[in-house]
Amino acid sequence: MTATTSPVLSPHQSSAVISAPGERFRAARRQTMYLCQPLTPEDMMVQSCAEASPAKWHLAHTTWFFESFVLREFLPGYRVFNADFAWLFNSYYESFSAFPEKRLRASFSRPGLDEILRYREHVDEAMERLFEREPEAEALRRIELGANHEEQHQELLLTDILNAFYTNPLKQRYREQGTKGTREQENREQGNAGTKTQPLGFAEFEGGLREAGHAGGGFCFDNELPRHRVWLEPYALADRLVTCGEYAEFMADGGYRRPEFWLSAGWDAVKQNGWRAPLYWSDSEGEWNVFTLRGELPLKELAATPVSQVSFYEADAYARWAGRRLPTEFEWEAAVESQPVEGNFLDSGEFAPVPSTNLAQDQNGTKYYGDCWVWTSSAYLGYPGFHPLDGTLGEYNGKFMSGQMVLRGGSCVTPVRHIRVSYRNFFAPETRWQFSGIRLAK
Amino acid sequence: MTATTSPVLSPHQSSAVISAPGERFRAARRQTMYLCQPLTPEDMMVQSCAEASPAKWHLAHTTWFFESFVLREFLPGYRVFNADFAWLFNSYYESFSAFPEKRLRASFSRPGLDEILRYREHVDEAMERLFEREPEAEALRRIELGANHEEQHQELLLTDILNAFYTNPLKQRYREQGTKGTREQENREQGNAGTKTQPLGFAEFEGGLREAGHAGGGFCFDNELPRHRVWLEPYALADRLVTCGEYAEFMADGGYRRPEFWLSAGWDAVKQNGWRAPLYWSDSEGEWNVFTLRGELPLKELAATPVSQVSFYEADAYARWAGRRLPTEFEWEAAVESQPVEGNFLDSGEFAPVPSTNLAQDQNGTKYYGDCWVWTSSAYLGYPGFHPLDGTLGEYNGKFMSGQMVLRGGSCVTPVRHIRVSYRNFFAPETRWQFSGIRLAK
Amino acid sequence: MTATTSPVLSPHQSSAVISAPGERFRAARRQTMYLCQPLTPEDMMVQSCAEASPAKWHLAHTTWFFESFVLREFLPGYRVFNADFAWLFNSYYESFSAFPEKRLRASFSRPGLDEILRYREHVDEAMERLFEREPEAEALRRIELGANHEEQHQELLLTDILNAFYTNPLKQRYREQGTKGTREQENREQGNAGTKTQPLGFAEFEGGLREAGHAGGGFCFDNELPRHRVWLEPYALADRLVTCGEYAEFMADGGYRRPEFWLSAGWDAVKQNGWRAPLYWSDSEGEWNVFTLRGELPLKELAATPVSQVSFYEADAYARWAGRRLPTEFEWEAAVESQPVEGNFLDSGEFAPVPSTNLAQDQNGTKYYGDCWVWTSSAYLGYPGFHPLDGTLGEYNGKFMSGQMVLRGGSCVTPVRHIRVSYRNFFAPETRWQFSGIRLAK
Amino acid sequence: MTATTSPVLSPHQSSAVISAPGERFRAARRQTMYLCQPLTPEDMMVQSCAEASPAKWHLAHTTWFFESFVLREFLPGYRVFNADFAWLFNSYYESFSAFPEKRLRASFSRPGLDEILRYREHVDEAMERLFEREPEAEALRRIELGANHEEQHQELLLTDILNAFYTNPLKQRYREQGTKGTREQENREQGNAGTKTQPLGFAEFEGGLREAGHAGGGFCFDNELPRHRVWLEPYALADRLVTCGEYAEFMADGGYRRPEFWLSAGWDAVKQNGWRAPLYWSDSEGEWNVFTLRGELPLKELAATPVSQVSFYEADAYARWAGRRLPTEFEWEAAVESQPVEGNFLDSGEFAPVPSTNLAQDQNGTKYYGDCWVWTSSAYLGYPGFHPLDGTLGEYNGKFMSGQMVLRGGSCVTPVRHIRVSYRNFFAPETRWQFSGIRLAK
Question: Is the whole model's pTM more than 0.95, yes or no?
Fold first, then answer.
């Protein structure tokens, strides 16, 4: 995509606090366009694994969401951009319309990127007209949901592009490092050796009868409700994520060859898929390399960064090898409740985001957010009294409450505005294409 | 198998209370043999679905368990029956030995049934010698575990044989009904119309901070421990299981064609597998029949019996259609805690066990046990502080804590001695070959 | 692709007779570019079935062929355009280099189309330098092979784009019909109702001891050699191809539901894939439509055009239903030997080629070439004494002599220069994405 | 099966010349029973690969053939043994009745072996009544076909049992060697070192216009007709089969790792299935063993016996490695036409048949028959003018004429009466469970 298609925020601007609905909407829309800047129209066609969608599809589907659930219902006289798009860019909402099989998205060469960009502009302009009319409360709720939905797809877009570039045998990088440099460079310049890791510590928590789930008036997804009581026994949580270097020790100790560390289904996955390292690790003449949005990097440079792109099964096996366990989602939530939402996020000033070496316990205490989503030992299920949204939007979260595990805390490709203490991400336990890592508990 | 191979208990004898370890062991061993009486050596070769094993394999594997974990360790001078059996009849204990792939069990024509019966006698005799020596505590614990293990395989043996006879195009029946008759016959004779169902009622429970998991000194599996506190919001539980007749209404209302009732993974299963009824239902000229251990019966005769052989997905969809939900495992356990373990079990005097029409709320109140395992909405996970048994036997339960749902309460093919309030059964949500049914909650 | 990227021949110019090696080369290269004119860079990324490759890949791979087998060996000082392309665009030549799995071609967003076009220009310019040096005989042979190779990929490119546009749920058309009009239009204007079909006649042949395989000095592939004797019994060949209208009668007579017409493997394919019509036929409210390079057309408009995109199994079943059989490749060759190579080919002036209604037996006699490849009943095997080319190019044809059937005669997407009487095309019997049709024999 | 169930011929008796229809029938029926003598009812339940059927099914299906195509039509008043058997034991005759999927045969525990044996007796007795009535010509033709059909299943029965015993992890042997000894023993006793191989020679043939297909009045299958002319170029055929020792040299030279020897589809099969030796070879501490009907034997004892259980792809790759090729089926037939049908067959006096070391060119010249079926380079297609039998029996051979290769000459498990010069066996090129070997041509 050429740099001129759309005015964009720099990542630093985009991390400013944005509160008015219009600003919230515009910031989300600009951020998506910014992320596409390094991509060609051809890059935006690639769908390289079953979990992924083409970047162009993400551009269209997020726009479809506003058209379908906001403009068609709340903007009188709204003219639909293209009647076919109503079903073409529906992802999985059975009660809205029929929709194409996911794997067909790679065949959507038409509409071309140009037309998708016009679609975005058409919808964005109509949204501005809606904002001028002071939209009613339900419309504002839908807009808030739509902005959050778009942020989810920003994260997916980068996750999918990383897979696309990894699949391309030429192993393209998403972005060169910016002139401003990265945290690692800054660390190195300031004499902080980025490859040295602090020893792992544990923070202890008392447990007891706690509350979990979203509280207060801000936005949340239906799956974060209702807030409810849970009983927790005393526990402890690691003060940082497991690093690539530590994970390499697990591998060197036969981690992928010793069934005693693995759940039975995990061991089946190891054997069937031939797993012997995290998804983007590859070895060349005895040395491991890791493919990132910055291209392929030697493991030894990343030894102190959090391990990423591991499945739940690998996280669980690592924990067992280490004599620890994974936390439940409620342990994580109770521990983090009083912490500010700070960490290495999509908006943190990295041009090509990767998990950061800056894991150190600083004066402000442990950071629990960002870098990598944390696999928890909790299955993704409805809270007591859970009720999906009414109507089509009820298909958003509830229908996936089967066979998945909860992840918490966001990653280096999550927009900071998107995350909160009660946020529940979820993936099947064999999923590896996400920025998913490991925080130990005991 | 001929009726003369082994002295057997009648089902009525076998339900007597048995407390001494030797009696416990002998009762379990006799019960297994009794269940094989209607089977030919050829029947005992069949392995008709991925979940199933041949009956002969069940005979051998339960024997292997006592040989491997009791006799080899605790009976000095024990002579192994056949060194090859140590790995041949290992099911999945990676740390014990290599073992054949499960699907190969159908090729075990040798050792023949005669040899397997000699293996059983060899081990049974050695066990008697051990009992004479007053075995040490750990040996007694292993024997208790082995008896429970054998009871699990009794249930599997009948479940598997039902599938085998269903797969045989001639649709064999396991047993003719006995001369003594069945509960349904008795009901009919006593004027209790077996096909009339009481209206569904709900019993209400207060919830609060409760304890779950095994308490007291008796036997339990490691996955029932530790006993721990859970917080429950107020809830209500149906006073009987959902019947075949009620389930047929769900089908008639488009249950299998309307995605709005289904979890996304469940809807995928419906489409991929072409599900349109429970596993053993088939239609012939507009009428549904249900295949049971008593052969194929018309649905209309079974309208008042609990629906069985449904997956978690179907149970969950039914509940959503009915405007209810499935209970959590803790709701079930808290509700049932004070109830006696009574119900329609393997030892209940049926020659060819099926779920019973006798669901009625009698003077003693609701029956929560037996007939069909109840799918809960709880994923099968370790309790807080869960620790598997040490050593090889630690592979018994813990390694399956992924991707499965908990079932509670036992079924018409569960030995009554085997069940208790804290008992946790578990299967993948798409599993349909079990005697698994539906109890609603709200 | 924009129309300005390359000077192109119109299809009429390109059908001129071209004999000098340079002209042969240039005509092939121009034709490829001409075919890409209606395509966007995004279209050229799509790989919509296992048989297909992205159009961009075809552009690159045909260029790679000249670079790898001509320039690197015969142009002193040739500078390779990009060292990675040597393996990246290798299709399957195991002895040349490693190569990416075919399914990965959809991930080649980089190199972008711009770079592939520069690659083509780089190689084309180097070829011109080679032509100036009067290349040696082996180089000329390789150039001839490369031009034929490129023509094969022209055909594949259109075949693959048809599938890509069919897979896109919006069902794009490749090209509008040109201003000049099509044969059908001409026919209609001249009062020849394009939808009336002449009754099928048969031409009789004596057979006897005949010769088959390439004769004379022109180019041929190794699989057309050596010319050898075959004995043919007397036979007859239909004087035109089977039409869509005739095929629809087979369907209406239960063709896809009656196993008696099908080879056992064909019947399995029908059941497994749910075949009930040729690949691009779909029904809508009781009417069949056919998807073509001109978009979706009603079957009734195509009733008199040859049926296309049928598998060998369907061709064979149709023939059995019709009380006929398919010809052997030698029967076809002996019958056609004395015929001029005339018919509806890629260069025949159609802007969006489809099989033509112009099947009529004209004064010059039956036309045997063009429109659709004819499935023969001959398995694709080496002729007696067959010897593949030496070296890497020996992997061109011989290694595919297993499990495939021979097709003869070319289709509406075959360049006319490419075809000859001894030409052997080959595909697996279940293949349906080709312009493959039916000529009956008896 | 106990030895007392049926009077049987010894193998020596059964090889006597049998000409009267009744004798032909009885000999075939006795031979089947003789082959089952070493098998238990449980052995006869095993179906260990997709190609195989349980031995019990072979017993029933061959009986079904006589009941369905002879007795029901030609014996007035014939009482069907069991109406269900008509469809239960139908293999694949679509026009006769529906039939169970092949993979379900492993679930046929009922009818038990006892009942199948009674079915055989019932049919055999009815056949005797038919013989007393002097059956009409068509009945005699069907009986002849049925006897040949049963002989085919005798061969399959042993092929399948070898696979069953190989799949059983205990690696059972079919039969101990008999007291009388084997040819190898006799050879050794007579000082003929069985492990020494004569150098491979080639017999030369002139070719020319020859006739192929069945001639004369005896029985043949429809696929051997019509006799027709073929043109053959001069060729040469090896004077013995390729041995295990020679094949081991191909393996040692990287045969399974070098794509240059393989057809493309064959190389795919090597990679997908992990082939690195013939089907029943396994290595243990650097030494290869071969599993046979006599149990597992060291390769070094079998170095001079023909290699068996190789696929067409392996045969073809071996030939290319050796600088030779496989013969066409017509080359084989023309070369062998004048040879007596002699060789190592099922009736050759081996208790547990295996390919023999007795490959030597004796005074009578080269032996072309027996030991192993010879893969030819000919696809299995209909001869010019081929016409299947009318009616249901037309589904016998013709519908399989797709995707298979022809094998010639019979093997050590083929009844000698069953084979003739025009006999065409056929299997898919990846098939390995047959006694299939290699005879080179040039």
Answer: no
